Amino acid sequence: IFMDLFSCYLFEGTAPPGCWYGSNFGHDSVVCECNSTYCDSVGSVTLPPLGQYSSYLSSMAGSRLEPGRGQVQVNSTGAGLRLTVVPYQKYQKIRGFGGAMTDAAAINILSLSAGAQDQLLRQYFSSEGIGYSVVRVPMASCDFSTRLYTYADTPGDYNLDNFTLAPEDVNMKIPLLQRAQALSPRPLSLLASAWSAPAWMKTNDALIGKGSLKGQPGGKEHKTWAQYYIRFLEEYAKYNLTFWALTTGNEPSAGQMTNYSFQALGFTPEEQRDWVALDLGPALHASSYPHTHILILDDNRLLLPHWAKVVLNDIHAGRYIHGVAVHWYMDSLVPAEMSLGVTHHLYPDYYLFGTEACAGWNPLDRGVKLGSWDRAEQYAHDIMEDLNHYVVGWTDWNLALDQTGGPNWVKNFVDSPVIVDTKRDVFYKQPTFYSMAHFSKFLWEGSQRVGVSASRKTDLEYSAFIRPDGSVVLIILNRSSSVILFEVWDPAVGYITSTAPAHSLLTLAWNTH
What we know:
CATH class of the largest domain: Alpha Beta
Keywords: Glycosidase, Hydrolase, Lipid metabolism, Signal, Sphingolipid metabolism
InterPro entries: GH, GH30_C, Glyco_hydro_30, Glyco_hydro_30_TIM-barrel
Mean pLDDT: 95
Family: Belongs to the glycosyl hydrolase 30 family.
Protein name: Glucosylceramidase
Shape: globular
Low-confidence stretches: 1-13
Number of helices: 10
Structural class: alpha/beta
GO cellular component, one term: lysosomal membrane
Distance between the termini: 52 Å
Number of strands: 22
Strand content: 25-35%
Helix content: 10-25%
């Protein structure tokens, strides 16, 4: 089936060279092919002078960050829909966007030739690429590994005398993270998450299934598990890789589920609160990494605000914590305002951060779909909704997967913005890659969300930001099947007349001085 891609035609429209229509798969848009010598790239972006604006369009019809430019007008055109930027309404500041360097991602990237590897890393991390600044790094194995392991598998090793990084870290993830950092114009924000403690520390004596740490917070297993985090930070620091943040553990609710099929460690919010207060917080504070942030939850937002209330209402735990990490699965089951919004208003001193999302996880819509615009819209909608509810960054899951959506030892195959075809030494940039780009490339760290109001009800979704240099970025998603005409009014500069094509994502940017 994947070879069919190359017997199909280049889309007659606005798709960049090297981007192919996905009709042969029954999917609705284009996929862009890159090799060791060619990749479509938006390049470095500089805004035009005051009085003009830049636009970047991606669409179901085949546009991929298609650049445009226009004049800011002094007077309104009287367009039916006006979006007014309200710069004095200030909200959260952006931390960044990125993806995860899982074992599977590293295996896939390294399966390409040196030239293609470099191209792939440039697409994500360089200033010509889409400007990823966050990389989530699993601590030891997860389902996107080829085997089960931790860094301390010797039973009874409470002093962690035998703690050692895996070949997957030393030979794959670490070298790739170093290369990504070398390509990035700014320091990467590395984020560590553990899936499971070693089996001998756990109630079920296994890495998978329903199980939690033996004993109680403050006890020897809980203390050793906290030291395991410190040892991980120490080992990575030897390779000049330091972590901005770590989470209290991936999806603690999974480890409370019977028959859970892959690596998990169960925590109730009460147990997580006490483990942070008695063990992890003090251990990190006393270590060489007291400035590394602790993010709680690292699980679906439907657990909010309850989880945050239990943990953050405790003064002993709360003093060590910086933020709340959320995953996107099941976001449709709970309104963003009831989970994210309420949590922010209750605990404004703690930031909200998206740590995992992927398409193709749902059993009804599983695995890789080359050229699916619907999935690009799912990403853009969720990112926009999160940003409009105080989230400061959004992290995709695997940076790259193979054509089956793996490897994954438990066959939990999903999709990725980059799909690697080792046989042909190429990789494909999915529509979701461009969804990420509309945010990651333009919303620099320190950009602040500001108010934006619509003159009437509209199908458009939108979010506005003022960047550290004073320029304005407005991102607009049209998930409807109609073209929508609108104008933007920025009181500081004037009016911008624009169009959101059906099923499109549009980024507008302009200088204010």
